[in-house]
Amino acid sequence: MFTGTGRHRAPLTGQAVYPRPLQNPLPIWSCRRNPESFVRAGTLGLPLMVAIIGGEPKRFRPLIDLYREAGRRAGHSAEKLIVGLHAIGFLGDPHRKLRTISIQGMLTHLRKSAKNAGGPRTRPQLTLCADPRGA
């Protein structure tokens, strides 16, 4: 059963979750993008899913460090402070035609589904970060 409150919906009280999870308690991951929310996830001891919409993954390291430090200060063990990574990308031959196709696909995705998430929005921006270190 799930109970919770929030700003954008009526409270949930004893709501069942289907299909039933194998784990008890139900694992809830926190997906974050700004420093305050990384600290909040760490303080609550929630597993963290880092959503990288564009750019170099290494720029998120300081935010992950904030998460782990906040969790440590709140008394959570390092084993409980799990970090996952969610990113979209294209792996393949760096041939110019394939790169052009992948960049166009990424631009279409970013323009439709990630309007408020930050990251590259134009072909030149995406081309600059389209290498082995980034989007």
Can you give a write-up of this model?
By secondary structure, the protein is an alpha/beta fold. Helices cover 36% and strands 15% of the residues. It folds into two domains: 27-87; 92-135, no CATH class. It has four helices and five strands. It has a three-stranded parallel sheet with strand order 3-4-5, covered by helices on one side. Strands 1-2 form a two-stranded antiparallel ribbon. Strand 3 (30-32), helix 1 and strand 4 (48-52) form a beta-alpha-beta unit. Helix 1 (35-44) runs parallel beside helix 2 (61-73). The radius of gyration is 18 Å and the shape is globular. The model has no long low-confidence stretch (mean pLDDT 78).
> What gross morphology would you assign?
globular
Number of strands: 5
Oligomer: single chain
Work out the helix count: 4
Helix fraction? Answer: 25-40%
